[in-house]
Amino acid sequence: MKTREQIVVELAKSVGFDLVGISDANELNDHIKNSLAAYELNYLEGIPWLNKERLIKGGSPDQLLHSPKSVIVVGVNYKKHKDDSYSTSDSNGRIAMYAQWEDYHLVIKKMLNEYKEILQKELSIKIDGRIFVDDGSLLEKGFAEKAGLGWFGKHTNLINSVYGSWIFLGALITDIELVPNEPVKKNCGKCELCIIECPTNAIVSPYQLDANKCISFLTIENRGAIPYDLRPLMGDWIFGCDICQDICPVNDKIDISQNTSFIEKTTSYLDLVGILYMSQEEFSTRFSKSPIKRTKLRGLQRNACVALGNTKQKEAIPALIDTLKNNQSELVRGHSAWALGEIDTPECQNALKISLEYENDPFVLGEINRALPVK
Question: Percent helix, strand and coil across the chain, each rounded to 5?
Answer without folding.
Answer: 45, 15, 40
